[in-house]
Amino acid sequence: QLQASGGGLVQAGGSLRLSCVASGGTFRRYAMGWFRQAPGKEREFVAHISWSGDKRLYADSVKGRFTISRDNAKNTVHLQMNSLEPEDTAVYFCTGGGTSALRPDYWGQGTQVTVSS
């Protein structure tokens, strides 16, 4: 199971840190990631981190503003989001496993992020 938290309402230019705790599996063996879905839009990839934490991928729209990290000792993955924009408003989903960053095996419930202008 993947349990995401940390969403909320923030003004443009502000920051939020999302967290996702994994349970019921061997967390440290899995790559982890984040996707998001805005109202009326398709779900889209945001960020991905390898099982060891040494490889990271970001969507162009968040590169330089968001940072994904993981703590295997705590079975947790984080998404630090800085310089937030209204366009970042979406439900954010934690993901795990899979053969590629765009095809995760596991999905958590979403956490709402709302950025006001």
Q: Can you put this structure into words, describing what you see?
A:
By secondary structure, the chain is an all-beta fold. 0% of the residues lie in helices and 51% in strands. It is built from no helices and ten strands. The chain has strands at 2-5, 8-11, 16-22, 32-37, 44-49, 56-58, 66-71, 76-81, 90-96, 106-116. The radius of gyration is 13 Å and the shape is globular.
Mind sketching the topology for me?
Blueprint: E1 2-5, E2 8-11, E3 16-22, E4 32-37, E5 44-49, E6 56-58, E7 66-71, E8 76-81, E9 90-96, E10 106-116
Parallel strand pairs: 2-10
Antiparallel strand pairs: 1-3, 3-8, 4-5, 4-9, 5-6, 7-8, 9-10
Segments where pLDDT lies below 50 for 5+ residues?
Answer: none
Specify the structural class.
mainly beta
Count the strands?
10
Q: Shape, please?
A: globular
Helix content percent band: under 10%
Strand portion, in percent? over 45%
Give the SSE order as H and E letters. EEEEEEEEEE
What is the gist of this entry?
The protein is an all-beta fold.
Question: What are the key terms here?
Answer:
117 residues, 6-stranded mixed β-sheet, 0% helix
